[in-house]
Amino acid sequence: MSEKAYRKPEEIFSKVFRAGRRTYFFDVRETKAGDYYLTITESKKNINEDGTFSYKKHKIYLYKEDFGRFKELLDEVTGFIIDEKGEEVISERHQKDFKPSDAIEENATEQDETSEEKPSTSEFTDVDFDDFGD
Q1: Of 17, 77, 118, 133, which is least packed with CB atoms within 10 Å of its CB?
Q2: Where are the domains of the chain?
Q3: What is the pTM assigned to this prediction?
Q4: What is the CA radius of gyration of the chain?
Q5: Which of 129, 112, 132 minimizes the C-alpha distance to 120?
Q6: Helix or strand or coil: residue 94?
Q7: Is 72 helix (H, G, I), strand (E, B) or coil?
Q8: Where would I find the H helices in the chain?
Q9: For residue 123, what pLDDT band results from cuts at 50, 70 and 90?
Q10: Architecture of domain 3-116 in CATH?
Q11: Residue with more model confidence, 72 or 10
């Protein structure tokens, strides 16, 4: 068999987007027939128990005939997410020291109530004891 039969699809154009432990690759490749298609690869870095690194990869192959509908649906679902949840990222929920916003509000309310009971140091008058003469 010829070398051409075993050749890897050629990359024509590429863009990379790094997002924390994830990296997204957008690669334009060429089919055997000479047409172009898109591969989107998500690569996530993992640390193994022995301290070595490995990468878990997921790939999507997207062909020209699907671009329009794919883009339309992507716009629709991302718009839905932004409309429903806003643009604020809430991934910190997965961090060990995360406190839900209602717990933060409760804590702030408790602090407000206790600050009413105890005056803050800014409410004290500065006193110079030299002012008290003999």
Answers
A1: 133
A2: 3-116
A3: 0.57
A4: 29
A5: 112
A6: helix
A7: helix
A8: 64-85, 101-117
A9: very low
A10: Roll (3.10)
A11: 72
| Average pLDDT over every residue of 94-105 | 58
Distance CA 46, CA 52 (A): 8
- Residues in Cβ contact with 40 at an 8 Å cutoff, skipping those fewer than 6 apart: 24, 25, 26, 27, 59, 60, 62
Is the pLDDT at 31 greater than 50? The verdict is yes
**What are all long-range contacts of 14-17, with beta carbons under 8 Å and residues at least 24 apart?**
none
Q: Judge residue 51's burial from the number of C-beta atoms within 10 Å of its C-beta, 0-12 exposed, 13-18 middle, 19 or more buried.
A: exposed
Q: Write down the residue that tokens 């640390």 correspond to.
A: 47
CA angle (21, 69, 30) in 5-degree steps: 65
Residue 51 pLDDT level (bands cut at 50, 70, 90): confident
Give me the mean pLDDT over the 8-28 stretch.
88
For 29-39, what is the mean pLDDT? 93
